[in-house]
Amino acid sequence: MVKTQKWTPQKLWILIGYAAAAGAMFSAPLFLSDFRLNLLAKFLAFAIVALGLDLIWGYTGILSLGHGIFFGLGAYAMAMYLKLEASGGKLPDFMGWSGLTELPLFWKPFESFGFAVLMGILLPALLALVLGYFTFKNRIRGVYFTILTQALVIITTTLLIGQQAYTGGTNGVTGYSKILGQSIASSDTKRMLYWVTAIVLIGVFILCRYIVKSRFGKVLRAIRDGENRVRFIGYNPAVYQMLIFTISAGIAGIAGMLFVLHVGIISPSMMGIVPSIEMVLWVAIGGRGTLIGAALGAVLMNWAKSEFSTTYPEGWTYFLGAVFVIVVVFLPNGLTGLLGKIKLGKKRRERKHEGVEYPAV
User: Fold this and answer.
1) How many CA atoms lie within 13 A of 257 on its CB side?
2) pLDDT tens profile 131-174
3) From residue 217, how far is each of 73, 129, 189, 287 by CA, in Å?
4) pTM of the full structure
């Protein structure tokens, strides 16, 4: 017997909301300047990494404060291709300043755009798989896992800074001019890169939604709510945790590659502890455990950061800090949690005369 999809008014409104959001994204180049469009493209890249982080924190209960590393590895992979493309076969400038006379062997494959994209996904995913194998297999979780991810950030950034001849050191990798033979500074290329970012965001959102709605996603939520119970009924939580951690890292790598295309630089400071913590805040403010909340939190908070820093250059950090405090104290479930409270309150008012009482939230 084939089950038919039941279209309720709520599902229709959700579908209409998704369609409206997609339409607004794709039409943005028609009414935004190149500068604003570039900012929005960067925010969409941040939304992608927020979706991946929500998979492991919101749905699996694993708090990672090291996602900046996975984001940065993807960014460096794309930056290496862009730098070689801009150099036109010559040695990158920072290597010459450091005394190198020929291109290192591990840089040469990055002359291929396809190889750079592949490495931008595989390198973060493999690192997450290795870290997850040794931690989840040994049942290292909670605050101990969080500390390990922060230690990974410190180790990686220190390594990148110390190997200046190969990574650009504290300055990072910058000075891009072309991608696939096209000028990266032209308006047409910027619009095309924006649309690519929007398409990737929608694709990642669909993938994440498929994961959380599948049987695999149900097991993830069960691990979040009671890991020992999941183990007792015959599942191995470590396998699921490793898989979702690897997928999340790969998504962060994709976001990093897109970020570089819009910003034009990647350095160790962009993948350190502070950026990693900010990523967690985006998910918390938007509403962890809700994919749309994670994406909206990333876009809205970075938009607020940009507007506050422009309007109040001397005190914008106080405004942004106040927003964080208000949301954490008064909206522990994020902005999407506020919508849920409003909806529950409406139901209470509608059915109060029927004698139906809803539990307090």
Assistant:
1) 28
2) 999 999 888 888 889 899 999 999 999 999 988 889 888 888 98
3) 27, 18, 37, 18
4) 0.89
CA dist., res. 215 & res. 213, Å (int): 7
Amino acid at 83: K
First to last CA, the chain: 39
From CA 60, how far away is CA 231, in angstroms rounded? 14
Distance CA 136, CA 44 (A): 31
3-class DSSP string for the chain = CCCCCCCCHHHHHHHHHHHHHHHHHHHHHHHCCHHHHHHHHHHHHHHHHHHHHHHHHCCCCCCCCCHHHHHHHHHHHHHHHHHHHHHCCCCCHHHHHCCCCCCCHHHHHHHCHHHHHHHHHHHHHHHHHHHHHHHHCCCCCCHHHHHHHHHHHHHHHHHHHHCHHHHCHHHCEECCCEECCEECCCHHHHHHHHHHHHHHHHHHHHHHHHHHHCHHHHHHHHHHHHHHHHHHCCCCHHHHHHHHHHHHHHHHHHHHHHHHHHHCEECHHHHCHHHHHHHHHHHHHHCCCCHHHHHHHHHHHHHHHHHHHHHCCCCHHHHHHHHHHHHHHHCCCHHHHHHHHHHHHHHHHHHHHHCCCCCCC
Distance CA 46, CA 302 (A): 8
**pLDDT single digits (tens) 15-49:** 887 788 888 888 888 888 888 899 999 999 999 99
Sole residue written with tokens 């890169």? 193
